[in-house]
Amino acid sequence: MTPYPHWLSPGDTAWQLIAATLVGLMSLPGIAVLYGGIVQRKWSVNTMLMAFTAFSLVLIVWVLWGFNMGFGSPLHLGPGILGSFVGSPAAAVGHLAEQGRAHIPMLDGLMPKLRFPQSSLIYFQFVFAAITPLLFLGSVIGRMNFKAWLVFVPLWITFAYTVNAFLLWGGGFWAQHGALDYSGGYVIHLAAGTTGFVSAAVIGPRLARDRKHAVPNNLLFISVGAGLLWLGWNGFNGGDPYFAGADASTAVLNTNLAAAVALLVWVIMDMAFSKERKPTFLGAVNGMIVGLVAITPAAGFVNGVGAILTGLIASVIVWLAWNKLSRVWIFKKVDDALGVVYTHGIAGLMGGLLVGIFADPHIIEYLGVKSSSSVAGAGLLYGHPGQLAIQAGAAITIIVWDALVTFILLKIIGVFMPLRMSEEELEQGDLALHDEEVYPTESIVGGRMQ
Length: 450
Description:
This protein is mainly α. It has 17 helices and 2 strands. It has a single domain (about 10-420), classed as Orthogonal Bundle (Ammonium transporter fold), CATH 1.10.3430.10.
């Protein structure tokens, strides 16, 4: 008996599992701690519980039918884009699914054969799927009914996320047309921004005074969550070539470059142009997230200069959107609690378009062997102006589809249960919802220690 089949690389397998774990840590505890620190004290427990339950729900959906909808054989629904819109739902459990060689049917022959088990691929792609609802959770914090959340997440993963993944990563329509989304600028971040904004519009705003006095309850927790996001992103982008090679290292360096530049640009913009003319830690975190999100679709396709410019341009544009576009009536009316539409939606869109400009064909994702050619991307600056149009087309598809699916799902769920908490729950927060507090007192309520 051998622990290493002839096709298995211990290095690739180990890196894939480590990268997946880093991405998982971005969600738990990363997002849970980050969002739990940003929100008012009375919403911290609710926020953390929504994060943990969504993470769990997505895993069940993913192994029972979601993975193969995103990365399996196509479900032929009709002509054109419908023929390669989503994969056929099927379970990804059993000994062959877990210990057989990993493969993505639609990409066979278009990329090197993978050198780790299918279970590694399933788990790696699961943590990407799982973090997406945790991101748009930031849009509906402080008013979405917990029961509605438990229903919405698995439905959204099934009908929205799997389509996004198949179209761009699983060999679907936009992958076939050359769209570049290295690690989820569109599939995850643009989708989260779109879904969060539509969800916030459908569910309605927080209580007026909660919206007016949305003071973070713990900046130290925010720093911990933000730090986990930044370093966890090394797995987010470093794991996506599926090989522990040169492109993985390039993607990690580019990721950190873009984050650092975007953070500093946001701080400088705050100091130079904000009303208070002061740097803030929350502003720095926003800049960091914008840089990480914007480089995500480009990390393994651009060189270091492209990464720096991506962080700079995205940070300036999102800062302007946050401070100027937010005054436009539609953005002012919709209560996107943590600004997910800006830091993820607009940042993801900008990153996806910028890769259409900065993609460097000399940055090789997969080296060609013998007669096969190397795999790389080329943007407008390298003689391929059509790439920008392809990127725009993929972005429009994600925005329209995810907005439509989100709206329909929430309206259907709303027929069977309220989408919003009751007035009492909105007033009291965690105590009314969960009989728990994030910083409990030593009083006894209902026979329980609080």
